[in-house]
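Entry:
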Amino acid sequence: MNTRMDTPPMQEPDAAAARPLWHRPGVRKMLMLLIIGLIWEAYGRWLNNDLLFPTLLATLRSLVESVASGVLPQRAGNSLWVLLQGYALGVALALLLAALAAGTQVGADLLDLLTAVFNPLPAIALLPLALMWFGLGNGSLVFVLVHSVMWPMALNAHSGFRSVSPTLRMVGQNVGLRGLRYTTAILMPAAFPSLLAGLKISWAFAWRTLIAAELVFGVSSGSGGLGWFIYERKNQLDIGAVFAGLLTVILIGLAVEGLLFRWIEHRTVRRWGMQSS
């Protein structure tokens, strides 16, 4: 009687776990950040002048104090709320223009003309007009944000809509889809990678524009955003807090770009097989 027992097959080691640490992008980036932090700290100590260049530890101390006092979270919340209003309005208008351009030749000509005229114009250059039209407050900020968001979003959406296959277009038309239903049911899902790219680019433009505008003005009803926080601390010669504000701007940008948009991309574009991993 054969009593031989089958041995379980050898398990292949996980490829990611078998790779050296240096070959992992997350580890490499953390090491780079550590090196940059050490250089920052060393240069600040060598310069020994907090009014010109505070050390990393002094900046982190100011950051913790500003967060603990509630000032920095409040200012960041103010900025994000204004950004959300301008961003949402700009994206909606851009999609409307792109949908019009996808449906009619007149709409396409109009979009080409408007983007050629307004896309090269920096949003911050419209700030004097915004101040005259909307006054000193959030209305002016929203206006310049809409300008910074509309044109890159419209261009990406238009490019994505034009890349949709003729077969898919005919399928939508054959089942009776027209106008807004045709755009939302056929064009937007098929062009989603281009739309997502437009959302990311528009976010970056809007975030930079908002901080720049708040550095010029940004007080509404006694409160301001991150840019105004930086400007106030500069006037008070609290350079550690200035660097803390700048660090907050960077961290929020990294969080939105590296976490939110990457999560959306993995849940949609990569999961649907529309882009290679």
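The radius of gyration is 25 Å.
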